Amino acid sequence: MRTTDLAARLACVGRTWTPQQRLHVGNVAWAHTHGDGSPAPDVTVAWGDPLLGFADVWLPASTVEPATASLHLAPQTTTPHQLAGAVDELLRVASRVTVEVPLQQAELVDALTARGFRESGGPWFAQLWRSLADLSDLDAHPTPDGYSIRPARPDELAERVEVHRRCWDPARIKRMLDLPVTGDEAGSSYSVDKHLAVMATPVYRGELDLVAEAADGSLAAFGLGWFDPESGSVLFEPVGTGPHHARRGLGRALCAEIMRAARDLGATQAVVGPRGDGGYPVPRRLYEGLRMREVAQVVSFATA
Questions:
Q1: 163 Cβ partners below 8 Å, 6+ apart?
Q2: In 3-state terms, what secondary structure has residue 47?
Q3: 120-144 per-position pLDDT tens digit
Q4: Measured between alpha carbons, how far is 10 from 99 in angstroms, rounded to an integer?
Q5: What CATH number should be reported for the domain holding residue 155?
């Protein structure tokens, strides 16, 4: 079975969501719009009716490198036999493949290791979580002087896109990761069309698409929250502060406002998935400063 149907994927991921799950409905919507800059997958596979799981596979340019897959198999609802069958089908698509899996999803980890997958090392991601029952601690993260935080307006679509592009400029990200910058890096691929696609997804809420406005009226930072009414959860994805406005507390202030707005919509918990290793520690420190704690580790597994 093959599907790229967004509604089916959202239902599949939302049906069994817990904070330990790698994908939130917001991740699914964000990936669907290719807002993260990822290309369309070469192969898509799905299992079950209604949908129990799916995988997007990006094949390598040469046989030297493994394929990369984004794999979701709904916990609690897939049997060991179904998990094994799904992994077998994935291996028929690409015999050498890397996938990211939460260690807390033990049955999926067992199905992968039984087929020869092993932890491959390298960067990993933490699932950080907090309750929204009491947000009084957020008073310690006010909006910095000279800025205001508000929802993005429909008449500033180009400016909303441009602040994203500045925050996630590839050369800037390389510098933050201590990677060499050649000067030939392309600019961010985020565009007005992509943001319109984001806004068209069924889980987008304008109340959670926030920007920080500087004193001169320019946009200095942004944060996008994704609310899932079924689980009462909100995901931060993505959040960014412009290079001339960094280290002033805008990121935490934006996330604090997203949590308050999400609580008003009915959210009871917040989740985010930053890097967990020491290669890029700043985002994790930001969220831990908002009393978010690690509840899962998402690591790479690969075939030999």
A1: 211, 219, 220, 221, 222, 240, 242
A2: strand
A3: 988 999 999 999 999 999 999 999 9
A4: 20
A5: 3.40.630.30
Put residue 254 in one of left, alpha, beta given phi > 0 → left and psi -120 to 50 → alpha.
Answer: alpha
Q: Which domain holds residue 215?
A: 129-297
Other beta carbons within 10 angstroms of residue 147's beta carbon come to: 20
Quick one: 139 exposed, middle or buried, by C-beta within 10 A (0-12, 13-18, 19+)?
Answer: exposed
Q: Answer yes or no: do 165 and 269 share one domain.
A: yes
Task: Give the residue carrying structure tokens 């046989």.
Answer: 63
Does residue 302 sit within a domain? no
Report yes or no: 254 and 210 within 8 Å, Cβ to Cβ: yes
pLDDT exceeds 50 at position 1? no
Q: Which ranges of 151-244 does DSSP label H, i.e. alpha helix? A: 157-167, 170-176, 192-200
Is 0.90 surpassed by the pTM of this model? yes
| Sign of torsion over alpha carbons 278, 55, 88, 85 | positive
